[in-house]
Task: structure prediction
Amino acid sequence: MTKKIFINSFIISLIFIFSITVYAAEVFTYNQGETEDDDRNRYDKKLLVLALEATKADFGDYVLQPTKRGSNYKRNLKLLEQNFYTNFFIQTSIDDDILTKFKAVEIPIERGIVGYRVGIINPERLDKFNKNMSLDELKRLSIIQGDGWLDTQILKQNGYNVFGISNYDSLFRMISLSRADILLRGANEISYELDNFITKYPNLSVEPHFIFHYPLPRFFITSKSNLNAAKRIEVGLNRAFEDGSFMALWQSHFGSSLKQLNLKSRRVIELKNSSISSLATDYTKYNFTLAEMK
Result:
C-alpha cells in the first residue's frame, strides 16, 4: 500500500512539474504570410528566435507559433489592435500613426536596407529605362506597390505615379503581364522574390540603372498591452547585435543578393519620408550604408 501511494505521488509530482514547465513557456506569435509562395517573413521569424534565445536565461522559455495564412498587411494590423493572437509581433515600416497605435521595438530589423528600393520590371519594357532619365520621366512611369504600404504614400508624396494593389501575388502578375512599368522592392527582398515567382510569372527581371532611397525603418510592433514581451524582444535584439549574431543572420540572408544588384554603380534617387516626424533618430546607428558595399 505504501509503495502504491509512493508511485501515485511520484506520478502526480511529474505531472505537476510538467504542467509548470509548459505554463512557464511564454507564447509568441509570428506572421506566417499570405500564401504558400509568400516567403517574406522567414528572416523575421529567425530574428525573433534569435532575440528569444538570447533572453531565455532571464525571461524564461518560450513557444513561437505561426498565424493562419491569408491575412494581408491591413488585416494583420487589425489583429494587432484586437490583440487576437498572444504576443503577436509583425514587422512594419514605421510612421507616426503606427507609433501612436502600437508598441514598437525601435531597432531596424533589416538595418534600413528596405529603404533602398530597386525595380522589378518586364524585360520587354527595358527600353523605357536609362540611367540619364530625368525626374519628370521617372515620375511618369506607372509604379505599383502594396495597398496600405508606407512606400505607396512616400512615393506619392514625392510626386510619383503610384497604384496600390491589395494582393501580394498580383504585384508580380501585373508586371509579368506588362500592366505596369515597375514594382519597387527593397534591395534585400528582390532576390528571393524572383526565385519564388519566376516560374509562375516568367516575364520578370531586375531594372539595372536606379536605386530609390528614403528613410524607411522597419521595426517589430505589437499590441500596447504586450509591454513585457516587447521589452524581451528589445533586450534580445540588442544582445544579438552586440554578440554579432544579428549581423551574421543579416549577412546570410541579404549579403550575396545585395552584391548581385551592383548598388554602388546605380544612380541614387533620394526621396523624403515625412511620415516619421515623431521618431527619434537613435535607430540609425544600426543602419546599412552603401559604403558597406566596397
Observations:
- Residues 2-24 form the longest helix (23 residues).
- Residues 208 and 262 are 8 Å apart (CA to CA).
- The chain is about 40% helix and 20% strand.
- The longest strand covers residues 88-93.
